[in-house]
Each structure stands twice: as C-alpha cells, then as structure tokens.
Design a protein that fits this description.
heterodimer, A: alpha+beta, eight-stranded mixed sheet, 10 strands, about 20% strand, B: alpha+beta, Phenylalanyl-tRNA Synthetase, Chain B, domain 1, OB fold (Dihydrolipoamide Acetyltransferase, E2P), Phenylalanyl-tRNA Synthetase, Chain B, domain 3, 6 domains, seven-stranded mixed sheet, five-stranded antiparallel sheet, 21 helices, 41 strands, about 25% helix
Chain lengths: ~350, ~800
C-alpha cells in the first residue's frame, strides 16, 4: 500500500498537463482504479483486517484526491501566469475622454453671496432690466435734474416717433428691485437682489454691463450699526478671513441717508493685492440707511420703519477674491479663460461645506 | 475739486499735518482722490555751495566743480553756463531721483572725470520751465533741505495740491472755505474770519438789468450787478496766478482771474462783461429757440426754446449761470467792466447745461447750488478785489429779482443718532457739531445754513452729526435672525431651477459663458429681434445696439471667437435673460447650449465623431429632467427659422407649451454668424416647466414585480418621414397593463426597401403582474402591437 501511495504521489507531482493528471486520477481513484480495486478486496477480508485496512484505504484515497486538486490548482495558476505574461497594455495612453464643463465665476460668486446672506435671513429678489425711469431714478430720490442722473451713464431705449412716453432705461443699478419688492411685500423685509446692470462706459476697468448685488433690510429698529455688523460678517465669510477689518466712510447716495462707502483692509506688495492684511484700504461697496423718501415711494411708512441698503459689484468681488485681473474678459467667453477661472459643476458653495476649495 | 494747502490755510487756522488733513477729508465724505506734494518729491535735494570751478580738460562747455554739501566736498561735473565759484546751489547727490529728467542720479564719469552728483535747474525739479542754468539761491546754508528753504522763501512752490471728489449733495465743498468749515467742525483747527467788503457806489449804474416775467419764477431768482469804470486789466499778481495754476487753471487776466478765484474760494461763480461792448441794458429772459451765441470757449451754441439767457439790445450775450459770450468778454483792453452776481434756478441750469452740452465750472456749481444769501456780499467782495488789483471806480448796485429765502429749520432729535446710526454721541456734542457747521440752534430746532441745500429733513441732521463724529468709530451690532432657529430656504422654485440647470449643463461638459445682454442689430434680427422697441437710443457701439432676443447669437459669436483662436470643438452654454419686447415685463430666462465640431477631440480609442442633434437632444432632456420637467413629452416640429427645418424638435407638453427646442442650426444662420459647423444647440425655457403639484417629500411606494418579464423585438417598414415616436407610442398603447416599455433600437433607411421607406426596429418589454405569461398570451399581445402600429403609421411588420 505504501508503494501505491508513493507511486501515485510521485506521478501526480510529475504530471505535465491536465490530460495526464486526468489519466492518473482514473488509474488511481477512478471507478476501476487501483484504489477502487483494493477497496473491493475489503469484502474478502476478516472483520478485524477490514477495520484496519478500510480507514487506511480511505485515507489513501483522500490523500491522492487532494494531491490531484493541489496539482490542478497549481497548473491553473501557472497557465494564468503564462497568459498574463502576454497581456500587456500601454497604460500611459490617455483614458477615455470626459468633457469637462465649468461654471462662470459670476454664477459661482452669486451663489456664494446668496449662501452667506440667506443664513442671515435675506431672500433673493429679482426685477426687470429694462426699467422705467421712475423705478430706476425718481423712486430712488434721483429727480430728473439731479446731477447723479447725468453721471450714471444711462442707456435709454429707443422711442418711436409719436411715442411721447419718457424712454425706458437699462437699469443702472439693482436698486429698483428694492422699490418693486417693497411695493409687493411691504415691511419688514430682508432681500438681496443680484443681477445684471448697465452703464454706457467701456475702458480698462469698465464694461457696459456688469453685475451688482443689492441688500435691503427694513424693520422697526435696524440701525447702521447692524449694517456694519452684517457687512463685517459677510466679508469675513466671503473672503474666508476671520477678523477682516472694514472701514465706513461718510459719503452720499441720493437713496440713503446717512450714506457710507465701505472699504476693506488690504495690502499691495509688489503690485500684488492681498485682502485682509496690511494698512491700505480698498473701496468695495456703497451703503447707508434707506432714505425716508425712498421708503415712502415704495409705500412703506418712514415714520414706522427704517433700515439699511447696500450695493456691491459681483464681478469686482470675484476679481478680488479669486485674483482675476481684467473685467472685460468676464464677458469674452474665451475658452481658456472659462476653463482657468471657472468652477467645477459640483463645487456648489455652501456654508457647511465651505464656499471655496 | 482741487485746492492747495496754503489756500486752505487762508480760511483755516490749523497745526494739523497734511496727512491728518487728508485722512479727515476722506473720513468726512470729501474723498481725497489725488495729492501732489512737492515737499515729498524734492525732499532729498540739499543746498550746496560751489567752492571751486574750472574748465573740464576735455570739454569746452563742461566745468569741474568742487561743491560743499552736507556730505563734505563733492566733485560734480556741470554743463550749466552759470556754474561758477561762490554761488549757492541745489544738489542732487547719487541716489536722488530727479523728477524733471525722470532719472536717479548715480556716480558717473564724464569724459574721463568722475562726477558725484548734479546741480539742478528749476525745470529739472519741475518748479518751472526755467532751464537756462542751475539755480542760484540768494541765501541758504550748506546741507539744509532745499524744500525747507522753499517753504521759507517761495512757499507757493512747495504747496501741496489736494484733489477731492465731491458728491452731488455737497456744493458747499466746491469752495475752499466750505472745506475748511468741515475740517474745523471735525476739530482740525479754527475758522479764520471771512473777508468782508462794503463798497459804496460812487456814481449811478448806467446798465440797467431786468428779469422777464417768464424767467423770474424758475429761471433767475436775483441778478445783481454794478459797473466799475477806469480799470486797468492785465496779468493778475503772481500769488493769484500761482493759485490758479496749482489747481490746473490757466491765468487769463486780472478781471477773469478774480471771477475764477471766487468760484473756487467761495463756490461763487461770477461773470464780468466788458461794459463798452454791451449795447443798452441787460435783460434776463427765456429764448424763443434758434438764437445763437459764441461762448467764451469760442464755440457757437444754438439755443432751444425756453432756455434762460442774458441779452442786450443786439441779442443774446451770455448763457445765464453757465457761460459768458465771447463778444462781451473782458480783454486786456477792457477799461469799464460790469460785474454780475446772480442766483439761477438750479434745475433750469441743469436742463440748459445738459441740452447745450456745456460743462463749465459755473454750470457745475450753479446746478448743484450756491449760497443765495451770499449774493450781495459776493458782489462787494469781487468789486473790492477788482479795485485792489485793477483800480477803477465802482457804481451803485443794480438788483433785479429778489434773493430767495431758503431759511428752514428741522427738529434735532438727539436720540435719533442712536436709533438710526447706532452711535452714542452726547446731546451737547451734537449741538456743538451743528453749530460749527453753521447751523443756528434755537431750542431743539436747527436752522439750516443758507449754503447747505442738501439738508432737507431731520435725517440730514443725523447724517451731519454722524459724519463729523466719524463713521469709522461706528461699532457693528449683531442683527438678530427674523425668527430664531434653522433658517428656512429662501430660493424660489425658478431660482433653484436656474442653479440646477447651470450645474447640470456644466456637469454634461459645457462651459458657462456670460455674454452681453445687447448685441448687434443684424444678429438680433436673425433671432427674432432687432425691432425698435428693443433698440438702444444711445448704444456704445454698433456691436451692442439691440437687446438680445435669444441667447444663441451671443453663444454663436463666442464660438466664432474661439474658433478664430484655434478651438474647433466647443460646448458652450449660458443661462440668463433675453428680451422679447421693450417693456419691463418682457424679460424671460433661457438656458441655451451650443455644441460645435466633434463629440470628442480625436483620440486613441477611436470614439471621436461629428456632433449631431441627438447629442443636443440628450443634453436637453437631461437638463429638463434635472429641472423637474415631466418625462412624458411630445416632440413636434416647426420651431423658429434659425433651426434646420428638418432637423430640429420642440419638446412640448401640448402644441403650445414648449419646454425647449433642440436641433441643428440652419446652415445660413451659421454662415452669417461666422461659425464653421457642424453645430447643434438647444434652448430651454425653465419658467414653462409646470410646478410639481405635490407638496410633501414622500415617494410613491416601489412596485417590484417578481414575475419574469418578456422582451420581444419587432421591425416595421414605414414611410421614411414617419416619426419613430409614433411607432413607440402605438406599441405602448397596445396594452397599457402589460407593455412596460418600448424603445427604438435600430433604424435602416433605403436599400432593398426603396428610397422612400425605412425600417424601425423596436424592443417591447412585457411585464406580467399576476402570473407568468404563456406563449399564447404573448402572441396575442404581439398581434395587438402589430395591429396598432400598422393602424397608426401604415407600417407593416418586416418578416
């Protein structure tokens, strides 16, 4: 029996391919194999002999079977190794192309501004861009002769001969949305109004269209100190710089009183602007307490309600935050610019996830 | 508004430094835009003395000088003819920047001899045009700073020039004295008493003045004047010329310079007529229209009707409050002068100035508002100054109209600063501030000074107090949420849709563009616009003349620009407003995408192909789905003319409810817009997607069927122009319970079928709900499908 074991284990170890292995299996443990023949002999044995030989033969069968399985697995591994040796690809070839879209900085920054101010309770209001001169000027305490009207570089729409209505204007600021929204909703109110505005000016730093966001908060006891807090919080969140300093300077806008221009802290080193550090100041927005005449024009009683308004340039905020040099390029749709300054589609700014990466 | 430091100090007694003054100005709302300080520019020049000078051995015109300086004796080569021993000079040592030649001095060799600096001329230091030789000072100690010497001996040369921006509400700050008053109220010094004059008339005035009835109420309030006889005009004195030059004005003659001086010193425009050129009396009246006048700027102006002018017996001689006429202007030969001080209606000035397009200092001030109460005094002060400078004898004063009464008072509520601004300022300090600004307090009523037309209510008093106290000191105070707790969403469904559309389109590989809302007329016309209602009256260029009727022309222009830069495969989109009329309500938000060129750049995997309308369709459907559009839609034809007539589709909910259009652009449109095709596009209308009816977030329960589904394929031969969707819809309609899905998987056109036929293969999925389908049941449904499709399309089953 020991001979049998040695013979087959040796032969299995030496088998060259799967067919040889199958032959060996049949010879050894097949129905007519040598082990099976031996098993048959068990019937002729005495019960005592059988008790000894039975388990031995079973063990031999198991041992041969497991040697066969082991050898088979080893052969399969070797065959796979051999196949894999021939399977080679140039992995430096490019992957399948996925087109890469982008979000324009103006959309991105508008969403950033909205995310911050929404948390302070401001909702988003919208309004017409071809506007009547009443909403764009008169209601905002800019009467027809006011020098500010001439200084606004207003676009007017064409009036046909015989149409004696005053021409409409392309809104020169987002402020008319204040009036329309107050007329519709009354007070108290907290809104921002982002959108396109138009002024007839085109040079290095001006484009005839740009984007503003207007802020308006009206309630019983909102003061300019609240305005300053809101803006300080806003700038800290927007520029992602804690404790960024702001400065209020007295100024004048027809629609606010008192009025202030607001500067943020910055530094200029070697022509490089850095926000939130240094001793210089950068003017970023105009603001003030809404003029009683403006409230009255919008149907809100100025003896009962008061509050603030502010307006800033979205394009300009984008330039300052992301270091984009030229305003004119915003509207040129140069693919290289869109890819370089644009944002990934899923980079949606949120307060909990962060505004920028 | 420009002025100089020494001019300011005529009115303000102050020890404040220039920097302190600049800071205070900006903080008070008089924003400093520019400062030129010669003290800074010339601070490194020092005084030296030439100890020895001899001719350069190798150059006839050069001298080798030994100069005593604060750094000892220096050798300087000098080419000036007056460089000689013993003179006191101004030295720029190596390292000093010389503004007049825009050079920083270094150590150099001139014809073999070293030179350690430069002796400067006036022009080299930008003090004057003088360049005949180097400066020779009559005094000065070696080593002293030259600017200190100038401050002592020629202060005008080192006078700092300050330019501030004036907001339209502050005409008072268009005079140096008004600026001084603000600074004094801030505590930067004390006001010097204003000059006064009381000129007695020596003889009766002979040029009478009247204001016509129609000009009296809202044209000219008061016109005062007087004759000064026997003046001798000529250049004004050096100090006055220096002042005017420092603020960028050209000195003309004493008489004219006097009027310019008052314009800037006291915000008080005046006018002087050469009395000998005035024929008869002066009459203020409104124009009939068509009159002309050559102004002092030598341009001819033609008047419209109703403008307010001053005429003599021969016609219009001056545009009241805006510009005088050339014919009656003063010249060096003028000996008799008529001085005018008038108060014009500021609205009338604005309208007339704008109509005539004249931007003069006089218009600028008269339309913002001058101090009417100062009118008569201004006439006397100007008279006195003319007499002082030019001699002459003044007449009595003639006055037409009346000085308008602008007196008014508002209640000062000292708590209002706290409630409106949020600053704690003691009541006494508030009253002190207002008094310092010229308000007269009577109890709690504040009488507004006549030079502050901007103060029109109680809120203005608060503004003045806060402004002078400094808004820089304002401390932010938290603004509570309207309601405590988690903030509610604030975006409207439309606003969310726009955000989702943007981000979905970008995720599909498109680059977002923001293009101008205006476009050229031709492009607007191609896309349904270009009409009068949407035309701009005053476009800045022909490329931006009309409000855009659609987003596609802007995207096509962007594509053409990018093609010119060498980018041939493009995916651009925009989400923004378009204008379907010229009224405020005629605004509609669109989302448009444009694909040009290949679906992919050519690549190693061989998957690049020309884009086609099914790319645009898939993207349009994906974006619509993201915005919440229903999936069951019709696809119709017949969209606008800029689409390829046979290769576009309208995605509709019924024939009139169009959610979007996709397709190839018309080849002619592409050609006109200069885009090399192929190009496909889509335009979607987010506002036309119906709002979801359901109000809660619960989804319907998921229905999972355990029974085996069966798929069967059918191929139908139909006429070539039959829509595949018709076949699909017919198949779905064959058994609304069993047919779960039907979709096209193959299209074959022509060949053995003939040129006008095509074969459409669909696969239909049958999903039993109660028991597994038997073959006979499947056959029955299949027969119904064939029957329905045949009825709907005339197609026959392909065997």
């Amino acid at each position: 029996m020991e001979d049998l074991r040695n013979k087959y284990l040796e032969a299995i170890a030496g088998a060259g391919d799967e067919a040889a292995l199958e032959d060996l299996r049949l010879q050894a443990v097949g129905k007519k194999g040598e082990v099976a023949l031996k098993m048959r002999e068990l019937g002729k044995m005495t019960p005592q002999e059988r008790q000894i030989m039975g388990p031995k033969l079973n063990a031999l069968k198991d041992e041969i079977n497991s040697a066969l399985a082991g050898k088979k697995a080893a052969m399969a591994d070797a065959a796979l190794d051999e196949r894999l040796r021939t399977e080679w690809l140039d992995v430096t070839l490019p992957g399948r192309h996925r087109p890469q879209g982008s979000i324009h900085p103006i959309s991105q920054v508008t969403e950033e501004v909205t995310a911050i101010l929404a948390d302070m309770g401001f909702s988003v209001a919208e309004g017409p861009q071809i506007e009547t001169d009443w909403y764009n000027f008169d209601a905002l305490n800019i009467p027809g002769h006011h020098p500010a009207r001439a200084e606004m570089d207003t676009f007017y729409t064409h009036r046909a001969d015989g149409d004696d209505r005053p021409p409409h204007v392309l809104r020169t600021h987002t402020s008319p949305v204040q009036i329309r929204t107050m007329q519709a909703q009354g007070a108290p109110i907290r809104i921002i109004a982002p959108g396109r505005v138009y002024r007839a000016d085109y040079d290095q730093t001006h484009t005839p269209m740009f984007h503003q966001v207007e802020g308006l908060a009206i309630d019983k006891d909102i003061s300019m100190a609240n305005l300053k807090w809101v803006l300080e919080e806003f700038f800290a969140a927007f520029f992602e710089i804690d404790g960024i300093k702001t400065r209020f300077r007295a100024s004048h806008f027809p629609f606010t009183e008192p009025s202030a221009e607001v500067d943020i802290q910055c530094s200029w080193v070697d022509g490089q602007l850095k926000i939130g550090e240094g001793d210089d100041w950068m003017e970023v927005l105009g603001s003030g307490m809404v003029h009683p005449k403006v409230l009255a024009a919008a149907g809100v009683d100025p003896n009962e309600w008061q509050g603030f308004a502010f307006g800033m340039g979205i394009d300009r905020m984008a330039m300052l935050k992301y270091g984009i040099p030229d305003l004119r390029a915003f509207f040129d749709s140069d693919l290289r610019w869109l890819r370089h300054y644009g944002f990934a589609s899923l980079d949606q700014p949120t307060l909990h996830g962060g505004l920028s990466r | 508004m420009k002025f100089t430091l020494s001019w300011l100090k005529d009115h303000l007694d102050t020890e404040a430094s220039l920097d302190e003054i600049l800071y205070a100005l900006t903080d008070l709302g008089l924003e400093v835009e520019d400062v030129t300080n010669p003290m800074d520019r010339l601070k490194d020049f020092t005084i030296g003395k030439v100890l020895h000078a001899e001719k350069h051995p190798d150059a006839d015109k050069l001298r080798v000088c030994k100069v005593a300086t604060d750094e000892g004796e220096l050798q300087i080569i000098c080419g000036a003819p007056n460089a000689r021993e013993g003179i006191t000079v101004v030295v720029a040592k190596p390292g000093v920047y010389v503004p007049g030649i825009d050079t920083t001095i270094g150590v150099g060799k001139i014809r073999g001899i070293e030179s350690y600096g430069m002796m400067a001329s006036e022009r080299e230091m930008e003090l004057s045009d003088e360049h005949d030789g180097i400066i020779e000072l009559a005094s000065g100690e070696v080593g002293d700073r030259f600017v200190d010497w100038l401050a002592q001996n020629d202060p005008a040369k080192v006078d700092a020039m300050i330019d501030i921006a004036i907001t339209p509400n502050r005409p008072d700050a268009l005079g140096v004295r008004g600026i001084a008053l603000d600074l004094a109220a801030r505590g930067l010094g004390t006001m010097k008493p204003a000059k006064t004059a009381d000129v007695a008339g020596a003889f009766p005035n002979t040029i009478n003045v009247t204001i016509a009835e129609d000009a009296l109420t809202d044209g000219c309030h008061v016109f005062a004047g007087r004759l000064i006889k026997g003046v001798k005009n000529g250049p004004s004195p050096e100090w006055l010329q220096d002042r005017l030059r420092a603020i960028g004005l050209r000195p003309i003659s004493a008489l004219v310079d006097v009027t310019n001086f008052f314009t800037y010193d006291r915000n008080r425009p005046l006018h002087v007529f050469d009395a000998d050129k005035v024929t008869g009396d002066l009459r203020v009246h409104r124009t009939l229209g068509g009159e002309t006048l050559v102004g002092l700027d030598e341009k001819e102006y033609t008047f419209g009707a109703g403008q307010v002018v001053i005429s003599d017996d021969t016609g219009v001689e001056s545009i009241g409050g805006i510009m005088g006429g050339l014919a009656t202007g003063c010249t060096d030969e003028t000996t008799n002068v008529f001085v005018e001080a008038a108060v014009w209606d500021h609205i009338q000035i604005a309208h007339t100035g704008r109509a005539l397009k004249i931007n003069s200092d006089a218009r600028y001030r008269n339309e913002r508002g001058i101090d009417p109460a100062f009118n008569m005094e201004a006439l006397d002060l100007a008279t006195q100054m003319i007499i002082d400078l030019c001699g002459g004898t003044p007449s009595e004063v003639v006055v037409a109209g009346e000085v308008p009464d602008v007196s008014r008072a508002y209640k000062l509520d000292t708590d209002r600063v706290q409630s409106l601004v949020g600053m704690e300022i003691p009541a006494e300090e508030q009253r002190k501030t207002l008094s310092a600004l010229g308000f007269v307090l009577d109890g709690d009523m504040a009488q507004v000074p006549s030079w502050r037309p901007d103060v029109q209510g109680e809120a203005d008093l608060v503004e003045e107090v806060a402004r002078v106290a400094s808004l820089t000191k304002l401390v932010g105070r938290p603004m509570a949420r309207v309601k405590a707790g988690v903030p509610k969403p604030i975006l409207s469904p439309m606003q969310r849709r726009e955000q989702i559309a943007r981000r979905t389109t970008a995720a599909l590989g498109y680059n977002e563009c923001v293009t101008y809302s205006f476009i050229d007329k031709a492009s607007a016309g191609l896309f349904g616009g270009g009409d009068d209602a949407r035309r701009l009256q005053n476009p800045i260029s022909n490329e931006m003349s009309d409000m855009r009727p659609d987003l596609l022309p802007g995207l096509l222009q962007a594509a053409a620009r990018n093609q010119a830069r060498g980018f041939s495969d493009l995916a651009l989109f925009e989400c923004g407003p378009v204008f379907h009329g010229g009224e405020p309500d005629d605004l509609r938000v669109q989302v448009s995408g444009l694909l040009v060129g290949k679906s992919l750049a050519k690549d190693v995997h061989g998957e690049s192909r020309a884009i086609d309308l099914f790319d645009a369709k898939a993207d349009a459907e994906a974006i619509l789905a993201a915005m919440g559009a229903p999936t069951k839609v019709q696809v119709l034809r017949g969209a606008e003319a800029w689409w390829h007539p046979g290769r576009h589709g309208k995605i509709c909910l019924g024939p009139k409810k169009v959610l979007g259009v996709f397709g190839e652009l018309h080849p002619k449109t592409l050609e006109t817009m200069g885009v090399k095709g192929p190009a496909v596009a889509f335009t979607l209308y987010p506002a036309d997607i119906p709002l979801p009816r359901k109000k809660n977030a619960t989804r319907p329960a998921l229905q999972l069927r355990d029974l085996q589904a069966v798929e069967r394929d059918f191929a139908f031969v139909v006429d070539k122009n039959v829509d595949a969707l018709k076949i699909v819809n017919a198949a779905i309609g064959a058994d609304k319970v069993l047919v779960e899905e039907a979709r096209v998987f193959d299209e074959f056109i022509g060949g053995a079928l003939g040129d006008d036929k095509k074969s459409i293969a669909i696969t239909v999925r049958l999903q039993p709900t109660e028991k597994t389908l038997k073959e006979a049941e499947i056959e029955a449904v299949a027969a119904k499908i064939v029957d329905k499709v045949t009825k709907a399309t005339g197609g026959i089953l392909r065997s």
